[in-house]
Every structure is written in C-alpha cells, then in structure tokens.
Design brief:
- This protein folds into 2 domains: 61 residues, no CATH class; 37 residues, no CATH class.
- The longest helix has 29 residues.
- It is mostly helical and 112 residues long.
- Strand 1 and strand 2 form a beta hairpin.
C-alpha cells in the first residue's frame, strides 16, 4: 500500500506524501479502489448468474441442443418395414391424427 501511495501521490521535500494528510488529493488511488470493488462486484454478480442459470433453466437454451454426428447409414426398404411404420404412426402414437390434413366438411373428417 505504501508503494502505491508514493507512486500516486509523489513526494514532498524527499518524504512520501500521504493521501490522507490533506496535502495532495489523490483521485487515482480512490479510482483504483473503486475499480477493484467494481471488479469484485461484477465478478460476484457473474458467478451468481452462472449459478442461477445452472439451477433453473440450465445451459442448453443458451448453448443450443446437442447434435449427433450424421451417418450415411441406410435401411432396406421392405413392405414389412413400411407396415411397421404405418402401425407405429396410426395405432401406437397417433401421429396421423394430428399431422395429416383432414376434410372437416365431410362426416367423420376423413384424411385428405
């Protein structure tokens, strides 16, 4: 601390001048203290925000979804696979009922 007082406040008649003796105002030391406290507060706020994000929504909305590597793997197209896909889309999960256009003016709203 003494070196910063000597560096910022200078010397008077060969003796170090203290900023608190009333001889020379030292705004540099006050600004250095302000900068230090500002950095501490800013860093603490950043840590708190990081903890809050981790505990609430997580980092995926900010970082984006995880993506798997694409492959060039293909599957054989057979009537059995087509029938299995039709069964899964209609009987098990009901995808066809929401994701297919319907003719709402006809009775029972058939698929278009």
């Amino acid at each position: 601390m003494l070196t910063s007082v000597i560096r910022f406040c200078g010397q008077h008649e060969g003796k170090p001048v203290s900023c608190y003796s009333g001889s020379t105002p030292c705004t540099e030391i006050e600004m250095t203290r302000f900068g230090k406290w500002f950095a501490i507060i800013l860093l603490s706020l950043g840590v708190l925000v990081a903890i809050a994000i981790s505990l609430t929504i997580g980092w995926r909305p900010i970082l984006g979804p995880r993506a798997r590597a694409l492959t060039n793997r293909t599957f054989e197209r057979t009537p059995q696979r087509l029938e299995r896909g039709r069964y899964i889309a209609t009987a098990m999960s009901g995808c066809i009922y929401c994701h297919t256009p319907h003719n709402w003016s006809a009775p029972n709203a058939p698929y278009v």
